[in-house]
Amino acid sequence: MVDVDLENGGVGFAEMLVSRLAHELVGAVGGINNGLELLSEEASGGAPSAELLAHIEAGARIAADRLAFYRVAYGAAGKDITSISDLRALALDFGAARGRGRLDWPLAPIAPSLQPGEGKLLLLMIELAFDALPRGGTVYVDAEEDVLAVEAIGEKQDPRAAAVMSDALSDAISSASEPEATAHSVHAVLTRQIARRCGRRLGLSTTQKGDIRIEAVSG
Q1: Which residues, in sequence order, are CB contacts of 75 under 8 Å at separation 6+?
Q2: I need a labelling partner for 181 at 20 to 30 A (CA). Which of 44, 109, 143, 165 fits?
Q3: CA dihedral in degrees (188, 190, 192, 198; nearest 10)?
Q4: Structural domain containing residue 45
Q5: Is 49 part of a structural domain of the chain?
Q6: Is the model's pTM score more than 0.70?
Q7: Tell me: the pLDDT tens digits for 60-93?
Q8: What CATH number did the domain enclosing 41 receive?
């Protein structure tokens, strides 16, 4: 699914990708581990508190939601998932698991027909949009057959919470030349390659309101 030459840097690409996913998951799993350690300490003194159990349950749910999203967005399992409702459910849970920002994905009366691979592409675009909202905001999804669009909308009441895309991600998404993958941009490079495989061009722009828009256009 991805244009990676294992003899010329592909191994490094895979290593960076795995490192990124591990980094995204370690916090949620670490929270579960901390909760279990506290549970062990409390067990000697009687029944554990409801608050502690809720903490462990929340950590497990966050880890599960992120894994479900990554399985489709990065794995072979997502190649043929084209159902808008299934993709939307994964993205909603992923947005909630991030803890900052929310997903706004209104369902159209007639769902667009996605081709194999475009579901993965759309989920990766959503992840990139969340990356542009370090202080929170809204990720808005508009999926049509000709244009898959995702917008990162900062919190307007807080000027510090404007949508911001790092230079590494911006270059990986919209550079005229083939971008070089780094630890910070490897998922954007992957998104661009998948877009190309789907016959789409990936682009990045800023709206009149100052929000960031990522598009994957057919042709």
Answers
A1: none
A2: 143
A3: -140
A4: 6-218
A5: yes
A6: yes
A7: 888 889 999 999 999 888 888 989 999 999 999 9
A8: 3.30.565.10
